[in-house]
Amino acid sequence: MEETKKRMTVSEVIFEDLKERIIAGEWKPGERIPSENKLCQLTGASRVTVRSAIQKLSSLGLVESRQGGGTFVCELSGEQHLNSVIPYFALNQPDRISMFEFRRIIETEGAALAAMRADADQVAAMHEATKKMAEATSTEEITQYDLEFHYLIMQGSRNSILVKVFEILRDTYFSLLHENVTLMGSTGAAYHQMITVAIESRDADLARLLMQKHLTNTIRATIDRQENAAMGPEETGVSSR
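RE: above sequence
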């Protein structure tokens, strides 16, 4: 930790220190943090440096400045905390396998929760997205309905954190699903239908199992197809004639 801090600018060190104090509850939501002058005295840093650290906290929604009143710790929900990871996913696309593993973690349980909590309108929307995915002919359309189905699962879970995570990762999801559809077409719609029926039947265990199988089969199929494409027709035993 000390080595990391040595590589940081003074403003970054102050930012991390203030952030840790807020997370630790030293300053409660709604409470005013020390003034810039006081923080300058405590840290030995210049006003410009301290102000830069506070502005960074503000950009993450951790604090807010009030005209003539100072800077206060914000009342934060779990969804707001997640906003700080958006820049990471905007600049660093996770690798394909990591994304699949992540999906198996959250979507299998998300499907089970949806089986317990989704309302009739959400289930109807899942059926509709599945039907449109199966009927669609273009890669873009199939991908869009594929994305819509998995988003509906998260919404059906009634878990605001799962919904927020999906929204943050929407572009990453679309890219991954687009690759799947390019390789496999709309074949995933068959699993979507089975998952929807399990959710409609309020069978959480079955919904979880089917979602796990769906994701596992998809990653296996895409890996196999990519490996076969890389090997070429002679190595796979497929004639080019």
